[in-house]
Amino acid sequence: MGQLQSNKARRAARLFDVIQSVDSADLARRLDVLAGEPDLDASDARAVPVPARLAVYLQVNIDRDPRKSGFDPGQLERDLADLSVLDHLELRGLMTVGRLASAPEDARPTFAALRRLSEHLRRREPRLGPDLSMGMSDDFEVAVEEGATVVRVGRAIFGDRPSG
After folding, report:
1. Number of domains observed in the structure of the chain
2. Residue 137 belongs to domain spanning
């Protein structure tokens, strides 16, 4: 997981069913254009037709942590109407990375804030889906208690990544 670089957007739009790290309006607009393009490289056996609408989660930097990427909550509120009418994106919901904390309970304020933001935004823009992608291996239980519909628990399943 990490920030989706703009130069990797074309490949991501072709390879993935869902992109969880749409962290700016510029990236959303780029993905919308790419998702609407026909698959010109049908000779590549790995190429998969792009779905009619590419499912995305809008990444929110809910804690306004300068070390993390994502929409500032206020900016997302201003951009959402424009993003919701993009023809080739399905806005499944919001995503955040919880705060780095020594105890899972310490991440609760982040998850609760994302849930409240989602509820607020969906009252104004019903095309924003209800999903919340939040919580990782160390804090997913708290995230689920706060409304997570998607959790990212790779380390809990596969173990730590090898160093190096």
Report:
1. 1
2. 6-157
